Amino acid sequence: MNIHNIANHLNELGDKSHTGFQFDCYPIDGDVEVLQVNIVGREEIPVFVSVTDNQILCISYLWGEDEVNKERRAHMFETMLELNIAMPLSSFAKIDDKFVVFGALSVQSSYEEIEQELSVLSDNCLEVIDELADYLI
To answer: Which domain of life is it from (predicted)?
Structure first.
């Protein structure tokens, strides 16, 4: 399994996906191979996919530290912890100064399972942004 196989599969699905979404994928050059996956209609929240020997990691960036209301930051963290259980296949993290939602799959996952993870992660991002908007400036 590699990002090129995933990209080819998702790009070829068209309107035949199991999730009802259409995907638009672009490999990103760099030291680590990364695939940018856009769900058509949700291009502002892409999912970035990387494949290691052990896992397929899917990450979506939510907002930067500079966008958080400083007075409400601690309460935002508490709310994120409470939301974390309710979000299937997804967890919160922070990469440098960016807050993210991520999910991981086995490299043995089927293309249908990858498609499902990407769809759920995208849905969860929309829910998180809606739920936590009051903590942002």
So the answer is: Bacteria
Span 13-41, pLDDT tens digits: 988 999 999 999 999 989 999 999 999 99
Q: Which CATH number fits domain 3-135: 3.40.50.300, 3.30.1460.10, 3.30.465.10, 3.40.50.1820?
A: 3.30.1460.10
Q: What b/e readout covers 26-59, taking b as 16+ CB neighbours within 10 angstroms? A: eeeeeeeebbbbbbeebeebbbbbbbeeeebebb
pLDDT in tens, 101-121: 999 999 999 999 999 999 999
Token pair belonging to 80 = 């994120």
In the block, residue with structure tokens 């499902």: 116
